[in-house]
Structure formats: C-alpha cells, structure tokens
C-alpha cells in the first residue's frame, strides 16, 4: 500500500545544515512534496519536485530525489531558529489525495 | 492568496455532545479534506469530498460524518463526542486532481478540540 516514512526528530545548531529524509512507496507519484508546519498553525507547502528531476534548489532549500531507492530529502542550508517546525514529506495518493509522513520535528539550538 | 478558514481555533466539549467543525475555502476548489493530527501519528485522513454532496471515507472515518452542501464549505460532525476524539483537526482544499498535475493542498490553521 501507499506509505511515507520519515524520522520523527532532528536537532541542529543554528548556522548548520539540516537534512530531513523520507522514503515513499508509490513509484508512480508524479510529484513529491515538502510541507512545513509552524507551532500552532496549519501546514504550508514549502516546495515540491517533479519525479523526472533528481534535484531542485530554491534559495536555502535543496530537494534531492533518488527515484530508484524511492528516497527524498530536504536540505536546509544555514539553518535559523525560525526554521524550527515540523516538516512533512508527501506523495500523491491513488484517490487524488496526498499521503503524508508522520512529520519530522526540527529543533534549532542557538 | 488562498484562504482556508476553520471556524474555531479551540473548542472544549463534553463527552456525548454533538460537535460541528466548519471549514470554508475561497478558491473554488473542488476537493476538500478533513484530517486529524496526533503526536507521533502525523496526519490521518478522516473524510474527503470531490464535489458538492459527495463524500468519501478516508483512513479513520469511524465516529465522524461530513456534510458538503455548498462547494466552499465542508463540515465535520462528531455525532457523539468521545475523549479519544481529543485532537487537532485540520481542513484542507485543492483543485480536482488531473493525471500528471501538481496536487497542492491548502490548509486551515486547525481546530484544537478537547473532549472532557
């Protein structure tokens, strides 16, 4: 069945790079997504990658996709305290919905 | 900007009460979704709807029902609230999914429901 796995916690120091990893099961997903949830808020789309790409860069964010291994990662360069949040990986579901991972809580220490 | 508005940020209800959670979107989206979010369990899909008066069960529909009488509004109903329904509830909306297109969901800020 469709499933998305990611680790639950990551802690980094301010200024370091953060790498959040995700594995997914549906190789037919056309797009893969990263959402961000700040404390007390709903989810917001952070970035996405088309499945024919292996990398996408957007300012401090780099998304890497290894389609063979069904592995997706999000790298945040020069991590700031404002990046502290929960990050969700998601793939398209078979019913037009999205399948979300459980979320990785990123803590940034000053 | 897309707006998905959930009527309440916080709700406190008693066991056995009927509870209505309301969600309104202003982007003419066909799809609307209700999720619950619990620590360590991530987002779990309760119900979703592709069109007015249509509904589909998600992964955990038991104890819930939904109503979509107008395109912009999707209501989640707890017929008889129980303590295990204490959770954060998130509403989302998106355009109808077409093969090969992006499926971007827009979320409301969430309703934190406590059932005592």
Describe, in short, the structure shown.
The complex is a heterodimer of chains A (110) and B (116). Helices cover 0% and strands 57% of the residues of chain A.
Structural notes for this entry:
The complex is a heterodimer of chains A (110) and B (116). Chain A has 110 residues and is an all-beta fold. Chain A contains no helices and eleven strands. In chain A, the strands form two sheets. In chain A, strands 2, 4, 5, 9, 10 and 11 form a six-stranded mixed β-sheet that branches. The mean pLDDT of chain A is 91. By secondary structure, chain B is an all-beta fold. Helix content of chain B is 0%, strand content 52%. Chain B has strands spanning 4-6, 10-13, 19-25, 31-38, 42-49, 56-57, 64-70, 73-78, 87-94, 106-107, 111-115. In chain B, the strands form two sheets. In chain B, strands 2, 4, 5, 6, 9, 10 and 11 form a seven-stranded mixed β-sheet that branches. In chain B, a hairpin with a 3-residue loop joins β4 and β5 (42-49). The model of chain B has no long low-confidence stretch (mean pLDDT 93). The interface between A and B is medium-sized, with 21 and 28 residues.
